[in-house]
Amino acid sequence: MKKLAAISALWLALAVPALAVQPSEILADPALEQRARNLSAGLRCMVCQNQSIDDSDAELARDLRVLVRERLVAGETDEEVLDYVVSRYGEFVLLKPRFSIQNAALWGAPVALLLLGGVFLFSRAGRPQKANSLRLSEEEEQRLKEILGRADKDPS
Amino acid sequence: MIIELGHFALVLAFALALVQFVLPLMGTRLGDPRLMAVANPVTLVGFALVAVSFAALTSAYIQSDFSVVNVWENSHSAKPMLYKVTGVWGNHEGSMLLWVLILSLFGAMVALFGRNLPDTLRSNVLSIQGLVGAAFLLFILVTSNPFTRLSPAPLEGRDLNPVLQDIGLAIHPPLLYLGYVGFSVCFSFAVAALIEGRIDAAWARWVRPWTLAAWLFLTGGIAMGSYWAYYELGWGGWWFWDPVENASFLPWLSGTALLHSAIVMEKRSALKIWTLLLAILTFSLSLLGTFLVRSGVLTSVHAFATDPSRGVFILMLLILFIGGSLALFALRASSLTQGGLFHPVSREGSLVLNNLFLTTATATVLLGTLYPLLVEAVTGEKISVGAPFFNLTFIPLIVPLLIAVPFGPLLAWKRGDVYAVSQRLFAAFGGALLVALLGYFLIDGTGVLAAFGMGLAAWLMLGALTDLALKAGIGNVSLSVAWRRFRGLPRSVFGTALAHFGLGVTVLGIAAVTSLDIERVMVMRPGDTMSVAGYTLKFDTIAPQRGPNFTEDRAHFTYMDAAARVQGEIISSKRLYTARQMPTTEAGISTIWFSQLYVSIGDATSDGGIVVRVWWKPMVLLIWLGGVVMMGGGVVSLLDRRLRVGAPARRKEKAAPAGVAAR
């Protein structure tokens, strides 16, 4: 709900809405266009909240889409295009954070957690566990019997 | 006057919530039944007071009383009545009031339906509910009061954000909050168990219905929110890994883990401490979600610092509840004994595996959501963590779990036999393989991943059916016996199968739509046609129209099949909401079986055409229908006789017709 509000706040900021990718932007070469779409989906619209330039209607997103396409047409590789965009806008523009030291914890955590959890469980599985020593009190045993007894008599 | 009554009721509710916190807790400490007896009436009256307060605010919205700041900021006299009412929670203050209303509703339900709980447990649970309620009521009264007056009263309101003027607002937030806040009951039960220093299988049985109820509401809330975003935002996406979505997805993931670990605890008296921890974590994630959404911290750490009053207050609440409960957990958990031995390969073992993957997935999504904040706070640099990260990490974590799902219910308790279970799942595996191969070779455009996704979906669905078939003994006994056995299976078995089947339905929708959807963008003039997915779409006319509080350009399309027979019409429009001068797109959607044709219009071009975006979304409805099936599984489980044991009065009413049907 809040996201909708946030996105609509963005609409407010931009007086003229337009749809994301415009027909005039689409490249003639389908392979190149597909690469452009893939790259766009991984680039953040700088004035939006968590929207890729591929989805965004913002003017700035449009400029960036055109820029990506120009670079691709000029023959650059995907990495070169991304490097160029990052050099202009910083790493904030990448929706997929780079594999760098700064992001080591981010990318490493899922694997590390799964391994640690797995090792912990595996090591515990081999160990004998203490038997259940917690007992119900007399009164509770009585009450439980009463409840279960009533359940047994249930016609269904 | 009504407004002041509502305000006064809210202040009274706060005072009563303090009483609800202090007296029953003292009662259990001192062993005084008179103090414990205070819990029930105070909880019920507290709920009534919050309800009065909520009704007062609603009446101000219905009457368009613009002397109330909150109404003036979020309503308009020309707004349709439905949106006047739903607008009550379409803003920060009102939605917090809804949050507290649902919290006190759950408290009242514990008071009403928990008569068979031991007095001390019920008193402690209600006491903790009271503390949560008091904290949030104070938050509303101090930082987010919806009853503030404005003088002189303006003649007209500023209208509700147009994107929110939709039936989705009537359903999505209440469902979501029922889920979020429902987990508060599990939390209170967990803290009460820690205070008492004892926990047993009966505890798990009492907590399970609340977990199930919260989970099924949250499932519905998330599915509804996803569908709403899909049709309202106009670019056809259904999940964006937006921090706000993640905020609701996190408690769902850990709540799902809780649901499963509570089964082990109830049946086998094992995983007690873990279940307690999950109950605490799940509600903590709900609180964190509220915090993330409400404080503005998501946009930037700096946005949070510029208007810190609300954010700091919620941060204090987080520290109090999460820190406090975890500290209590650290102090008390060691005094609780573990029980129930089991072999790693067993039903228990499979549920532990489920928990391992679900909690890792929860931690991954949590870290991804918060990482930009951490990096910014530490280094000052801004980075983004968006959909590509979550797709790359979450999907590999969840796929092994999905593959393992059909095994779980077939494994025996204590010690299972994977080999024997694999043999029983042979047919399901064959069916899944067949689906994957057919998908790969017969449908244009399916890649290996899409085919795998379809096979996985079939595996989940067939696995769920296999579970039911085996438990009924189909193949081993005569059909009439099998049918009788099938009818006699506990409802929780049906619930499990239904929920797992629903998961498969959702996976099928996701696999189909992510790999096979078709997008067309082009400039069209009235009379033009385009073809998409075997249909021909014709742009008939476009004309201006007036709505109650907006003007719009309505484009009319018809679509025809390959033989040029008209199959239906689609109306897609672009609106301008006059009060806020805010444009929106209203996508035109036509449903064909489970697939949809999605048409969204954009700007006019200089040569008299308009930009039209068309998507073919194959099987897209299955994504949300799967959620509905999962909810169905939750409802069926909730009706299980086992959970009603100890609620004798209700059981008798329902038992009679069931008994007749059994004969």
From TrEMBL, chain A:
Described function: Possible subunit of a heme lyase.
Q: What is this protein called?
A: Cytochrome c-type biogenesis protein
The CcmH/CycL/Ccl2/NrfF N-terminal domain covers which part of the protein?
9-148
Q: Family, per the entry?
A: Belongs to the CcmH/CycL/Ccl2/NrfF family.
Keyword field contains Transit peptide: no
Sorted keywords for this record are: Cytochrome c-type biogenesis, Heme, Iron, Membrane, Metal-binding, Signal, Transmembrane, Transmembrane helix
A Pfam family annotated for this UniProt entry: CcmH
The answer on whether this UniProt entry bears the keyword Cell division reads no
> Which PANTHER family does this entry report, sorted A to Z?
CYTOCHROME C-TYPE BIOGENESIS PROTEIN CCMH (PTHR47870)
Q: Which CDD domains match?
A: CcmH_N
Q: Where is the signal peptide?
A: 1-20
User: Per the UniProt record, which residue ranges are transmembrane?
Assistant: 104-122
Instruction: Name the source's superkingdom.
Output: Bacteria
